Amino acid sequence: MRNSELTPRQRETYISIINEYEKLRNLSEREKEVLIDDITGTTFIDITSDWAFRHVFGRNKENLMLLLNDILPEKIIDLKYEPNAVDVFKGDDKQVIMDVLCRSETGKFIVEMQKVGNDEFRNRMFYYGSASVTRQLSAGDSYNKLVPVYVVCIMNFSLVHSADQLIYRYRLQEQDTGEVYGNQLTIYFCELPRFAGAHNEILSPVEEWFEIFKNMRNFVNRPRNVNKRFDPIFEACRRKGLSDKEELQYFRAMIESNRDRSIANFYRQEGFADGMEKGMEKGMKLGLEKALSRLVENGFSEAEARLMLDLD
Q1: Domain boundaries, the chain
Q2: What is the torsion angle, in degrees rounded to the nearest 10, for the CA atoms of residue 120, residue 48, residue 50 and residue 15?
Q3: What is the sign of the dihedral through the CA atoms of 276, 280, 284 and 289?
Q4: By C-alpha distance, which of 190, 207, 209, 213 is closest to 45?
């Protein structure tokens, strides 16, 4: 759906949602229209947004099993969803709320979509996983009742590692010999930026997932180089299948998760266009200067603005 296809009432609703955010309220009418069009003008929803991720994988266990069976070593034949908020031991424990939590007969699975990382991220994923280990037993239970916990995190950013690969797998092992302690807790980091992209070659199942996660909202049609077994994922992401309520939920989620980058890109492109007649270098410089200035005017600190524009 393109912005021109929106009804006046839809446009008014989207504008009102944008105006709820202090840093977006002062955007010009044109800037708000561009932001609306950027979100509503796609064939498929952005599967890396929290809402879209839960929409695709948090409601349909077949979709989730398709993902997990391509990442995990064991075959999962059935899943049961569990409440994604883990009970705390005492009132002042830090709350654990996950994107998707489920279990099979042989394990528990935490599946997360993370767009932005920070220096706490590794500890956060360990905390999520260990909370799902320690909450399994009741008084009198045998420790043999523990089932393995798998934390699977799809990440739109990269961490620092000693080698370059698509998926990193962590679990306890003996430091000198490498002997594995057990499979009580395994953490998987699936780092999307490490996938360079498809060039019409045959992709592995993991590479197909990376292609889908990175580019779903950019696809106009279903790509031919992705296996037909992914048809249910594409159908779940197709905008025409969303109800009016789901459209609003998705729009709000996209505003919350993507507003900074969308505005930064808009200002950058505006500046590029203004300076293009004077040369590519001049246009790029002017674009960055204009983007930085407008972001600061709209309430972002200079440090935030520079980070959004990749200037640091």
Answers
A1: 3-41+258-308, 50-237
A2: 120
A3: negative
A4: 213
